[in-house]
Amino acid sequence: MLAGGSPHAHDFAACGIALARIVTDLHHDVQVVAHPDEAAELLRGEGDDAVDALVMDGLWWRMLGDTYDQWRDEFGYSPSQSTRSTLRSFVAEGGGMLAVHTTPICFDDWPEWGDVVGGAWRWGVSSHPPVGPVTAHIVGTHPVVEGLPAQLMLRDEVYGDMAVRDGVHVLAVAKRNHGDAEQPVVWAHSYGNGRVVFDGFGHDADSLNQPHHAQLLSQALNWVMAAS
Length: 228
Hints:
With 228 residues, the chain is an alpha+beta fold. The chain has 7 helices and 9 strands, in the order H-H-E-H-H-E-H-E-E-E-E-E-E-E-H-H.
């Protein structure tokens, strides 16, 4: 599990604890790291050290713009070619990935990352309102959302106007603001031989611990791991 990045807007340590509990409740072993290069090193493991799935809840990007001046020296990041290759090949060769909340914002100078995730943040276009009450609507049928109520009530953020890739299976939608168009907030897709689920919620541990949200995350992890 990659749970780390700039603390200016998210408590990744607390989110990592909440997500790790979901993983261990499914009787899987989990190792939590804070930096993408550490995650990539683990993904290169073989044999008994092989990894079945990456749970990603981090925020690592170049942090361009005056807003991020005080954090850029420590958290500004562009993945090396080695890390890019490892993340891409891990999923393409059959590994699972559960991509949570900020994942599409990461690696802003690596366009193919959006192909792996199934969508990417568009700087100057994508946006989200402040954290507040959200009603997400489940659409269609899929193992990831099986047994969930038709509506999920959360206190979270809705990311909108992202560059969602063609062919993803949208599983839930929500409105960013009243009167807005519905935005895809949960989807599943395949990248090569691997399976990926993106869950756009998870701004904080309270959202991750909400029972129906935790159920969605558990079922998403089971689904992405079924390909490995």
